[in-house]
Write a structure and sequence with these properties.
With about 170 residues, the protein is an alpha/beta fold. The protein has five helices and six strands. The protein has helices spanning about 40-55, 65-75, 100-105, 120-130, 150-160; strands at about 5, 25-30, 35-40, 55-60, 110-115, 135-140. A four-stranded parallel beta sheet has the order 4-1-5-6, covered by helices on one side. It has a two-stranded antiparallel sheet with strand order 2-3. A hairpin with a 2-residue loop joins strand 2 (about 25-30) and strand 3 (about 35-40). Helix 1 (about 40-55) runs parallel beside helix 5 (about 150-160). The two termini are about 20 Å apart.
Length: about 170
């Protein structure tokens, strides 16, 4: 069973702090709302390399939902990706964030790595206790700096140790 690499946008690919060199600013319009995002094309390359090396499938786990395929993916060199449907927010059971039940429903029993700036211990507890999931890694990304090589290396190590490496 192929593992999933779930990727958030805001706070992960679009950091909230001052962008470092390599980031470009883009203006996006969704409906009547205008957004400014800062994206680094190297993120797309690194995520694709991680997916290739581990046999994982990339998917969006973001409130951008399908808009991520239109506004984010082409700017960082990703193809159109599957999207975790976020649906309506539910009341928290264990203090988990609103996305966690939607992620649990999407992954079913597939192993996964989830890059998000809002995942915490409560989310892990919810996934383990309420959903019975045990083959996952939550990678908490600092929203100021966004996704780093260290986050990707952590994911790769976990996937490799879990038996998902495709090569050296």
């Amino acid at each position: 069973m192929r593992p999933l690499l779930l990727v958030d946008v805001d706070g992960v690919l679009n950091p909230f702090g001052r962008p470092e060199p390599g980031f470009r600013r883009y203006h996006c319009t969704i409906g009547s709302e205008a957004y400014t995002v800062h994206l680094d094309a190297r993120h797309g390359i690194r995520l694709l390399e991680l997916a290739l090396a581990t046999g994982a499938e990339l998917a969006w786990a973001t409130t951008w939902e399908h808009h991520a395929n239109h506004w984010i993916a082409p700017r960082i060199g990703l193809p159109e990706l599957p999207v975790v449907p976020m649906g309506p927010a539910r009341d928290s059971e264990l203090g988990e964030m609103f996305k966690t039940p939607h992620v649990a429903a999407y992954v079913e029993d597939r192993p996964f790595v989830w890059f998000d700036d809002q995942v915490r211990g409560e989310d892990e507890r919810y996934l383990r206790e309420r959903q019975g999931l045990d083959r996952f890694l939550l990678v908490s990304v600092d929203p100021v700096g966004g996704l780093t090589r260290e986050h990707l290396a952590t994911a790769r190590r976990w996937l490799t140790l879990s038996g998902f490496s495709q090569g050296p």
